[in-house]
Design goal:
The chain has about 300 residues and is an alpha/beta fold. It contains 13 helices and eight strands. The strands form two sheets. The protein has a six-stranded parallel sheet with strand order 3-2-1-6-7-8, sandwiched between helices. A two-stranded antiparallel ribbon has the order 4-5. α10 (about 245-250) links the parallel β6 and β7 (about 250-255). It is globular. One of its GO terms (molecular function) is metal ion binding. This is HAD-IB family hydrolase.
Length: about 300
């Protein structure tokens, strides 16, 4: 696949699809039941190989969380739940609300807002036990998050699970929140920002930096190496241009509810696109609703997250 980088984006995409079609055909030849299903699906889709490929245990899917799997920002919803439980004061909730309003209106992430939300969250949880926050996270998911999962994205994740593949959330949200959401959705697991804890108590500091932008790509690369995955056979899903490094790692990148920069990038490279927002919101960014087209700090934090999960 490395040689494909020297081709133009259009030719590289076409060549990659041909390679994947060949792999799918070989898989179908080995298993007669899948051969019949694949033949029918290829006929229905105008000759495209079925995806995800059933039984491919070296393939996995990586999903961004905020505005990809769930409407809005997980950290904001978590903050609402902590406010209800008297973890902080009204002025802090108002700041969270402003950040969420910006996120909803702009449809993209603001680095300054993210830093502010991170620092506020760290100060709020300082001195609390990790086990306490995990337990509260379960309650908050039921109260504020469960009804905000995009059904379309959930169906995409389920398709990978039904194909026997692993599915991971990859998010800048705290890893404890991400793990709760992944567990409730029946996903394999989650990579997220790691807050430092000593003897099970939060110190108010991070391990490394937030898992954002290029750090997400490093996390996916580290996980793929640890799990013996072939990234050329994997898929990644995100709404934000900040995740282009992660999307570019895999053979099957998807733009989900994309911001304007990611939408342009996806169109230029002929990446698959899905939009599950309302017709009005989709029109605002110029995409038909439910449309489909064809379809060292950050790395350190990811490595520590992997290490903690395996202990």
């Amino acid at each position: 696949m490395a040689a494909l980088r020297w081709l133009s984006p259009r030719r590289r995409s076409a060549t990659a699809r041909s390679v994947l079609a060949g792999e799918a055909s070989a898989e179908a030849a080995r298993e007669s039941t899948l051969r019949e299903a694949a033949s029918a699906e290829r006929a229905a889709e105008g000759g495209e190989a079925p995806f995800p490929v059933h039984g491919d245990d070296r393939a996995a899917a990586f999903f961004d969380l905020d505005n990809t799997v769930m409407q809005g920002a997980a950290l904001f919803h978590f903050g609402r739940g902590l406010y209800k439980r008297k973890f902080f004061e009204t002025r802090d909730l108002m700041r969270f609300a402003w950040q969420q309003a910006w996120f909803r209106m702009a449809g993209t992430e603001d680095p300054e807002h993210m830093r502010d939300a991170r620092d506020s969250a760290l100060s709020i949880v300082k001195g609390h036990r990790v086990s306490e926050l995990r337990s509260i996270g379960e309650e908050i998911y039921d109260e504020y998050m469960a009804g905000r999962i995009w059904p379309g994205t959930r169906a995409l994740a389920q398709a990978h699970l039904d194909a026997g593949q692993r599915v991971w959330l990859v998010t800048a949200a705290p890893v404890e929140i991400a793990q709760v959401i992944a567990g409730r959705l029946g996903l394999t697991g989650a990579l997220g920002t790691v807050a430092e804890s000593v003897a099970g108590v939060y110190t108010g500091r991070l391990v490394g930096e937030p898992l954002h932008g290029p750090a997400k790509a490093e996390a996916v690369r580290a996980l793929a190496s640890a799990e013996n995955l072939d990234l050329s056979r994997c898929a990644a899903y995100s709404d934000s241009h900040n995740d282009i490094p992660m999307l570019s790692l895999v053979g099957h990148p998807y733009a989900i509810n994309p911001d304007s920069k990611l939408r342009k990038h996806a169109r230029d490279l002929e990446w698959r696109l899905r939009d599950y927002r309302t017709g009005r919101k989709a029109a605002k960014v110029g995409i038909p609703a439910a449309a489909g087209v064809g379809a060292v700090a950050g790395g350190t934090a990811a490595a520590i997250a992997l290490h903690r999960r395996r202990r």
